């Protein structure tokens, strides 16, 4: 007999002994929360810690950059809820500017593309913070900083402050 | 165990065939934090978000052990050349 540390996929295993997946059972409602967050808030950031007290240098950097623009900033702390973390990851994969994204990759035709289309979701954006602007996934702290430098961020945030301040 | 600089380099080289690559271990040796600069033709025609996704995807295995990956540069050879020219002219001025 062989000893193994992996979970058997044997169909005879009684369901009481099968691994439970908490994420799967609660995934739907969390996905809805994220969807709502991103829809309701022009600038939504999922980060480690709170905007006033970030728990990670990258989250801190992202908040600092966004604050420069004086736009309303909604945030959730993913450290408080590991399941939320997974829900955000899955969401940022699916929500990034649909057609442009896919078209570019059809043209590219590389190994990376195939893997992405096969849906290896977590690998495509494994880190936090994750920033959504006007319902679209923008990226992490490197991207925000880069867009800040090039002026793209200013362009993207145009009109947000005024509209939301009412 | 953390990830080594060499592992990060070889994975990026294999998947993105960069013309220039710099990987810096910013973790102080424990291998949990890296900063990378990549110049690759494969970035041509892609937005920054897509480029970062490609890098993340290239490092799927490594990312399980890496806490922080900072992609400070993800440009095409043309963009890089322009950047270098600008830097040079600034330095000369």
UniProtKB/TrEMBL annotation, chain A:
Keywords: 2Fe-2S, Iron, Iron-sulfur, Metal-binding, Redox-active center. The keyword Metal-binding applies. GO terms for molecular function: 2 iron, 2 sulfur cluster binding; metal ion binding. One of its GO terms (cellular component) is mitochondrial matrix. It comes from the Eukaryota. Residues 43-102 form the Glutaredoxin domain. Residues 1-23 are annotated as: Disordered. The keyword Metal-binding applies. InterPro entries: Glutaredoxin (IPR002109), GRX_PICOT-like (IPR033658), Monothiol_GRX-rel (IPR004480), Thioredoxin-like_sf (IPR036249). Gene3D superfamilies: Glutaredoxin. Belongs to the glutaredoxin family. CGFS subfamily. PANTHER family: GLUTAREDOXIN FAMILY MEMBER, GLUTAREDOXIN-RELATED PROTEIN 5, MITOCHONDRIAL. This is Glutaredoxin domain-containing protein. It comes from Escallonia herrerae.
TrEMBL record, chain B:
GO terms for cellular component: cytosol; nucleus. InterPro entries: BOL2, BolA, BolA-like_sf. One of its GO terms (biological process) is protein maturation. One of its GO terms (molecular function) is 2 iron, 2 sulfur cluster binding. Belongs to the BolA/IbaG family. This is Protein BOLA2. It comes from Escallonia herrerae. The lineage of its organism: Eukaryota, Viridiplantae, Streptophyta, Embryophyta, Tracheophyta.
């Amino acid at each position: 007999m062989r000893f193994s540390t992996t979970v058997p996929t044997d169909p005879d295993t009684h369901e009481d002994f099968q691994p439970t997946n908490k994420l799967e059972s609660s995934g739907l409602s969390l996905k809805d929360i994220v969807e709502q967050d991103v829809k309701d808030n022009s600038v939504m950031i999922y980060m480690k810690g709170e905007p006033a007290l970030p728990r990670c240098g990258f989250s801190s950097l992202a908040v600092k950059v966004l604050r420069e623009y004086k736009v309303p900033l909604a945030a959730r702390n993913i450290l408080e809820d590991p399941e939320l973390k997974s829900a955000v990851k899955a969401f940022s994969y699916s929500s990034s500017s649909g057609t442009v994204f896919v078209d570019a990759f059809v043209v590219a035709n590389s190994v990376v593309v195939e893997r992405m289309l096969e849906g290896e979701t977590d690998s495509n954006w494994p880190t936090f913070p994750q920033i959504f602007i006007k319902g679209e996934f923008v990226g992490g702290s490197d991207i925000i900083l880069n867009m800040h430098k090039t002026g793209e961020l200013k362009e993207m945030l145009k009109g947000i402050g005024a509209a939301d301040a009412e | 165990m953390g990830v080594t600089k060499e592992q990060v380099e070889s994975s990026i080289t294999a998947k993105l065939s960069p013309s220039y690559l710099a990987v810096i271990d910013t973790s102080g040796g424990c291998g949990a934090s890296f900063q990378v600069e990549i110049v690759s033709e494969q970035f041509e025609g892609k937005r920054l978000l897509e480029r970062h996704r490609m890098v993340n995807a290239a490092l799927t295995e490594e990312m399980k052990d890496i806490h922080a990956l900072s992609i400070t540069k993800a440009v095409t050879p043309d963009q890089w050349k322009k950047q270098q020219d600008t830097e040079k002219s600034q330095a000369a001025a």
